[in-house]
Amino acid sequence: MDRLRTKYLILAFMAIFHLFSIFLPPDANNIYLLIIRPLVYITGLVVFLSLKLHHDTTELKGYDSIILAICSAIIYYFALFICILIFGAGANATTPSFNVWLNNIWVYVPFVIAQEYFRVYLVKTSKQYTFNQRAVLYSVIVVVFTFIRAETLSSFIGYATQQRVDYIITSVMPNLILNIILIPIASYSVPLGCIILNIIFTLTSILSPILPNVKRILWAIVIYLSLFVIYFLYNKFLFTPRIMRRKSRARRHGMRWEVKHPIRSSVISLSIILLVVLFATKSLPYFPAAVASNSMKPAISRGALVFIKKINPKKIEGYVQVGDVIDYSKGKTEVIHRVIEITGNENGETLYITKGDNNPKADTEPVTKDKILGIASAHIPLIGYPTIMLQQF
Question: What is the pLDDT of residues 322-348, one digit of tens each?
Answer without folding.
Answer: 999 999 998 878 999 999 999 988 888
